[in-house]
Design a protein that fits this description.
The protein is an all-alpha fold and 404 residues long. 94% of the residues lie in helices and 0% in strands.
Length: 404
């Protein structure tokens, strides 16, 4: 290699150096482009698939929790405003599910999300059905409450009329000195009416207590009072003879029966509502678990791809650094080699020029010596010529003299 470089001309060496640098830069650029292309693909997947997945799953989780809160509030209070809130949240869940389906349709590779979405929708359908049943049971409870209130109002009115009439009649009998048997019958009717009122009041108190504590045991115990009430009515019915009193007692009986039916209906619907609540809680747990799974999967994918992108960027940075270091090293080595070659060439040229100068100086000295020799020879020849000329002039003078 070194021999080949020495055999190259200066222009060839410089061209080789630039070619090597260009090749190194090109290779480094290709490696960077490939690495950045991978990062670009990863970033695209994050932006188009997994970030929307996390966004969708977060919205779905939030809407699910808010829906459950509204439904629980409705089940506990029966207030319509909570059911309206739940209805709105259901609409938001539907919108989120539509977004999730669209995302899965656009990116079939989101297989985990597709499966989790299918599982969520299964439990979501069950939960929605249970909410519908909750609404039905709550409406039935509200209807039973209204029926109980109406029956209680009717009972109180009829019982007041009956008691007032019996007490007035008792006072009248006492004032008239009625027989003991008559007074005993009248007292029986007054006392029995008071006992019936007390038993009904016990049922009402038990009903309020059960609703307040959400414990059905007080109602179940109080329902036994109705059999006792019917027994009391049957006991005094034969001794009630006036048409007005008979009608009043009939109204009391009808109101008590209606109140009993409404109370039993309330008890039944409340038990059903509690059973629905237990089932709804189980499905809610499943929904929360599925929602958490969707969120966790989206976050996991996002973190994984982010780490992959970070690793690609790190590798690209390292490759770039290594490439730059190699390029610098190659450049330095080539520069040294080229510089040495150029220096060696220039040194050779300088030496050649120096040798030529010495030879030229020597030749000049020789030429100068030869010139001096020629000059001296010329001077001598000129002197000889002058002598010859002088001799000729003398000969000529002598010849002219001789001729004369």
């Amino acid at each position: 290699m070194h021999t080949r470089l020495r055999s190259m001309t200066l222009g060839q060496r410089i061209s080789l150096g630039f070619a090597a640098l260009i090749a190194t830069t090109f290779i480094l650029g290709v490696v960077c482009i490939v690495s950045m292309s991978k990062v670009s693909v990863t970033a695209g997947r994050l932006a188009e698939q997994y970030v929307p997945e996390v966004e969708f799953s977060s919205e779905l989780g939030r809407d699910t929790q808010l829906t459950m809160l509204a439904v629980r509030s409705y089940a506990l209070t029966g207030e319509e405003k909570y059911f309206e809130e739940a209805t709105k949240e259901f609409q938001l869940i539907e919108a989120s599910l539509t977004k999730g389906r669209d995302l899965v349709a656009r990116f079939p590779q989101l297989t985990t999300l597709k499966q989790q979405l299918t599982d969520y929708e299964t439990f979501y359908a069950q939960y929605k059905q249970l909410v519908t049943e909750t609404k039905t049971a709550s409406d039935a409870i509200e209807s039973a409450r209204k029926s109980m209130d109406a029956a209680a109002t009717e009972f109180v009115s009829a019982m007041n009329d009956f008691q007032d009439n019996q007490i007035a009649a008792l006072n009248k009998d006492i004032a008239a000195g009625a027989e003991r048997t008559t007074l005993e019958e009248r007292t029986l009717k007054v006392d029995t009416a008071a006992e019936i009122r007390n038993l009904v009041n016990q049922v009402r108190v038990a009903s309020f207590k059960a609703q307040a504590t959400r414990d059905l045991k007080p109602i179940e115990e109080a329902l036994k009072n109705f059999a006792v009430i019917q027994g009391h009515l049957e006991r005094i019915r034969p001794v009630v003879r006036q048409a007005t009193n008979i009608a009043q007692l009939a109204k009391v009986g009808t109101a008590v029966k209606t109140y009993e039916e409404s109370t039993r209906g309330l008890n039944t619907q409340w038990a059903q509502l509690d059973a629905i609540g237990v089932r709804r809680a189980k499905v809610s747990d499943e929904l929360v678990a599925k929602t958490s799974a969707v969120v966790d999967a989206g976050v996991k994918h996002t973190v994984s791809l982010s780490q992959e992108a970070a690793a690609s960027l790190t590798a690209s940075s390292r490759i770039t650094q290594i490439g730059l270091a190699l390029a610098a090293a190659v450049g330095v080595i080539l520069a040294l080699l080229i510089t040495r070659g150029i220096t060696r060439t220039l040194r050779g040229i300088a030496e050649s020029l120096a040798d030529g100068a010495v030879q030229t100086s020597s030749a000049a000295a020789q030429v100068s010596a030869a010139s001096q020799s020629l000059a001296e020879g010329a001077s001598e020849q000129a002197a000889s010529l002058e002598e010859t000329s002088a001799s000729l002039e003398e000969l000529s003078s002598m010849t002219k003299k001789n001729a004369d």
